[in-house]
Amino acid sequence: ASCQDRDGRVVVATTDACVWQAEDGTHRVPWSQIAQAHWATPILTLRVHVGADTSTDQRGGPPRTVIRVVDLHLDEPRGVPDAVHACVTESVVFSERIDLDSAAVMLIARRGTASIETDGIIWTIAFESDAAAADPRIAAQAEAALREVRIALGV
């Protein structure tokens, strides 16, 4: 599916990725990197994984996922929001909400590009809040829960 945004730039949902043009160039984001897509006429909002913050605060802890929010203004969407929603949803192969001692997280496995390390599955931990993600104790519990789930699933 394809359409143009309010500035006449192309937005395309392919089988592999969402592609759009912006002032800073053309962006191609695989479905496995789109954490969430939301359609509220006329804006398609994408929450895109752009990497990990490897800096640590005084408490230490594992890297946090960095999310970039992209708003695409689509006055004539021509099926793009439905295609994006379907592709993002289809990329999820597993998700489970886990209650920890003082927070909850979502453990999510998505189809991605296969490599020796991932076998095509990309695992992420989505924290309920930035405060939970910044707490090394909660982050360690989340990592342990992910290990347990992967062992139980045999991956």
Globular, elongated, flat, extended or rod-shaped: what is the shape? elongated
Alpha-beta content class? alpha+beta
What is the helix tally?
Answer: 3
Please give the share of residues in helix. 10-25%
Element pattern in H and E: EEEEEEEHEEEHH
Uncertain segments are: none
* CA radius of gyration: 17 Å
Give the beta-strand count: 10
Could you give the distance between the termini? 34 Å
Mean pLDDT, all residues:
86
How much strand? over 45%
Biggest sheet features = 4 strands, antiparallel
Question: How would you concisely characterize the structure shown here?
Answer:
This protein is α+β, with helices and mostly antiparallel strands and 155 residues long.
Question: Could you walk me through the main structural features you see in this protein, from its secondary elements to its overall organization?
Answer:
The chain is built from three helices and ten strands, in the order βββββββαβββαα. By secondary structure, the protein is an alpha+beta fold. Strands 1-2-3-4 form a four-stranded antiparallel sheet. Strands 5-6-7 form a three-stranded antiparallel sheet. It is elongated and about 50 Å long. The chain starts with a strand and ends with a helix. The mean pLDDT is 86.
Q: Which helices and strands occur, and which strands form pairs?
A:
Layout: E1 2-4, E2 10-13, E3 17-22, E4 25-30, E5 34-40, E6 43-53, E7 64-73, H1 80-91, E8 92-99, E9 104-111, E10 121-127, H2 130-134, H3 136-153
Antiparallel strand pairs: 1-2, 2-3, 3-4, 5-6, 6-7, 8-9, 9-10
